[in-house]
Amino acid sequence: MADITVQHLAKVVGTSAEKLVEQLKDAGVKGKTITSTLSEDDKVKLLTYLRESHGKAKKDISAPKKMTLKRKTTVTELKQAKGRGASSVSIEVRKKKTLGRSAEEIATGLSSDELEEAKRAAQAHQDLVQEQGAAREKEQERASKKQEALDKIEAEKQAKLAEEKAILEAEQAKEAAKKAAAEAEEAAKRAELEAKQKPEPQPEPEPKSEPVEEPKIKIASPEIMARVKAEADAKKAKELGRKTDKKKAGSKFGGGILHVDKKPRRNKKKGGGKTRDIRLESDGKHGFEVPTKSIVYSVEIPESIIVSDLAQRMNVKAGEVIKTLMGLGTMATINQPLDQETAVIVVEEMGHKVVLRSDEDIQAELLADVIEKDGKEEPRGPVVTIMGHVDHGKTSLLDYIRESRVAAGESGGITQHIGAYRVKQGDSMVTFIDTPGHAAFTAMRARGAQITDLVILVVAADDGVMPQTKEAVEHARAAGVPMIVAVNKMDKEGAQPDRVRNELSQLEVTPEDWGGDTQFVNISALKGDGVDELLEAIALQAELLELSAPVDVAATGVVIESRLDKGRGPVATILVQKGTLNMGDYLVAGEAHGRVKAMFDEHAKAVKSATPAVPVEVLGLSSATEAGVEVYAAPSERKAREIAEFRQNKSKQARQAKQQAAKLEQAFSQMEDGDSATLNVLLKTDVHGSLEALKSSLTNLSTDEVKVSIVAAGVGGINESDVNLAAASDALIIGFNTRADASARRMIENRGVSVRYYSIIYDVIDDVRDALSGLLAPDIKEQIVGIANVRDIFKSPKLGAIAGCMVTEGYVKRDLPIRVLRDNVVIYEGQLESLRRFKDDVQEVKSGMECGIGVKNYNDVQDGDQIEVFERIEVKRKL
Ligand SMILES: Nc1nc2c(ncn2[C@@H]2O[C@H](COP(=O)(O)OP(=O)(O)OP(=O)(O)O)[C@@H](O)[C@H]2O)c(=O)[nH]1
């Protein structure tokens, strides 16, 4: 750099020229003025001085506290081109940047980082203090709000009490007013009577009503006064701190809902509603807003009710009911069904009245419009069910009757299986229920459907009375249905009809010719002998029963069989019991409803109507139903739907409750016995009758150790959803007279589900019984396989005591358990540790050979002891 004047340098470093002269002087560069030039040497001296003096800055406060540099950003050079020795002037722009220590740093003696840190800490502390302050404030605010709320509740309570008191007083006043009015009226009457009795001429007779009117006005005043007082009391109570919050007041339990009287609304849609307008009767001018009594509803509670439904009946929100339930220790959701007992507690807790309704009552009410009671009774034919022991000939008899009578009597003779058919006998028709067996009969009876007028008890003459014969007698007797005994298989050589009569007499079924009241007919279902006599006996019995039913009323009947037909939808065979079933009738059958779209008789002939004791196949129901459910012709579709839906809800709720109970039961049983084995079964059958029978037969196979659990059961083919369910629940699918469809078959293969098809009930039962037997834990039996006599004892340093033995019976095997016997008494039971012949380890030593036996953990074997070798074998058990 070229030499520079003091003035110029001062400008460059940003100080005054005079100060620089001073500093130069201090630096030892003397004799310099503002205009003097500075040599390199001078500059170095000045710099050294400045550095030194800055180094002492801490001690010398007057010394510069910081060094400020200016960042050079622009350099502009002005050139002076005039004359000789043209010179140039450089202009530099610098930004200030402080690198030195700030006054704070100096004051505190801390570095900038430390200072920054300290500042942050201080800030954080300050924030914390502020936060704590805010929290304290909030806490105080909350406490004061809580206190306020408590005060408010207290005030509300007071207000309510005052209101109730006022109401009571008002009522008392009203009562008094009434009494006074009555007395006044009485007095007026008396006066009138007296006046009549003493007819004194009066110039202007006063109107008769006047004496009655007057006390009315008089007594109106105390009433008004009472109400005014009530109002004043209520207001006073309000002033105590109550800000009217009608909703809250209403939600308090125990007190019911308070509905505060409102001024009449003009645009109220329906008059009344939840509030009532109370107006004074005196002159209509004074209308006080008086709180009325809490409204207590009479709440109808059926056997099961959903939470939201219950809330609706009490006119509160479902949340209120849930809250009450929580208060009673029960957690519930809005859609949860409550049993009647719980619902009663909730309703009482909320201050309402309980009206218990059984489902039967509700149904009876629903059905009241449907069932027509009156109608002219007309004679009808008998309905007959055939029962008896297995293989005694029930089906053969039904078949013979159908083939001989029906086919012969009808053109074409084609009959189809519709669960019931009719046969002409004399002037009347006999209806046979074509589902032989007790299961169907019991299932129908269990549902309260008494469809049979007569039972034909088939007993094979060569076999006599068997268990199911007895059962059939019991069923018929329990149902109060008369019996006719058909002694079958009379064509057989070993036929002993008298033995049958004898055995049945012991069951108090005594033949007529033996002095009893039961008709016995000897028949051969195979050849047809005696079948005509049997039919005559049926007609005779029917005549004695004088069967009749009204015809010109809406139909009622029973579903005998029901299934889902692929092409036609739900199909039900209905036996009409009363009235006439017509095409187009609305129907309700159990949980199904619909309209009669088509009707067919047992010859598949379309019919337009069916009268009592006539079975028909009906299309048009919404779903297949269970056998034995009652059928009603409803006056409208709405009615039919209403009844069906009520039943659907009921069974849904029952199912839910059952599921919950089952889950619990399962959990408990798993907890209790840990490993009771269960065979899961998914059951599909062709008709409801067999479904019922199989279900009960299979579940009856369960014992304490093994159980049959029917995971699902239904009528119809096996479909994909069945297979899915079976796979998910590890169930065996049983198809009774049904098959899996193509897609279900594919799925069965893919998912490895077991499926079995049957057409004989007893085969199903036998197979399931076998499967259950397989689940039974086997019996463990012990079998002695060999005995060795101890003849000597050796001590082995490695193995301890070794018994030198002779195998006298069977064999000794190394890994089998043993017992040590002394004088035929077991003194030890354990395992072999070593088995040797001479010095070799061996696996087995046979009878007649010597060996050395080491007994594990036992060294007390003695000469003369016996070592018994045995094995445990599993023996399969059968149900
Ligand atoms: N000889 C002779 N055999 C008969 C007679 N009735 C039935 N059977 C035979 O007895 C066997 C059983 O007859 P079913 O009609 O199937 O008996 P069931 O009572 O219906 O039997 P389940 O349906 O299994 O309860 C068949 O082989 C019939 O042929 C009869 O009157 N005489």
Structure explained in plain terms:
It is a single chain. The strands form 10 sheets. A 6-stranded mixed beta sheet has the order 11-12-10-13-14-15, sandwiched between helices. It has a 6-stranded antiparallel β-barrel with strand order 17-18-23-21-20-24. It is built from 21 helices and 36 strands. The protein has 879 residues and is of the alpha+beta class. Among the domains are: 4-53; 298-357, Arc Repressor Mutant, subunit A (Orthogonal Bundle), CATH 1.10.10; 381-546, P-loop containing nucleotide triphosphate hydrolases (Rossmann fold), CATH 3.40.50.300; 675-775, Translation initiation factor IF- 2, domain 3 (Rossmann fold, 3-Layer(aba) Sandwich); 779-875, Elongation Factor Tu (Ef-tu), domain 3 (Beta Barrel), CATH 2.40.30.10. The longest helix has 86 residues, at 112-197. It is 39% helix and 27% strand. It binds guanosine-5'-triphosphate (GTP). The site of guanosine-5'-triphosphate has 16 residues, from α12.
The bound ligands are:
guanosine-5'-triphosphate
Structural class: alpha+beta
Question: Helix tally?
Answer: 21
**Cα-atom radius of gyration:** 54 Å
Q: How do the strands of the widest beta sheet line up side by side?
A: 11-12-10-13-14-15
Task: Bin the helical content.
Answer: 25-40%
What is the CATH class of the domain at 381-546?
Alpha Beta
CATH architecture of the domain at 381-546: 3-Layer(aba) Sandwich
